[in-house]
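Hi support team,

I submitted a single chain yesterday and got back a structure, but I'm not sure I'm reading the token output correctly. Could someone confirm the output below corresponds to the sequence I sent? I've pasted both exactly as they appear in my results page.

Thanks,
R.
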Amino acid sequence: MKLYVANISPTPSKSEIRKFFEDFAEIRSLVWITRKFAGYFIGQILIDFVNEADNERALTELNGAEFQGRKLWVRPARPRSATK
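Hi R., thanks for writing in. Yes, this is the structure output for that exact sequence:
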């Protein structure tokens, strides 16, 4: 299960954000969500940890956790709806 994480400050570097989550558990994949045409980071990621138990644990332990002055919002990622 992938997780959707929002309310990340746009100011830290990608390596700072990655390190925060790597310190929690080993990452299988991490996708940066950017504004479609402008290409800038909008403070949201999709993340999948290697161990499924870590994904479950992240829902409770990282939801509301503070990262650089902001409380993270962690939810199970929903599949994108198909566009017509």
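A quick pointer for reading it: The mean pLDDT is 92. Let us know if anything else looks off.

Best,
Support desk
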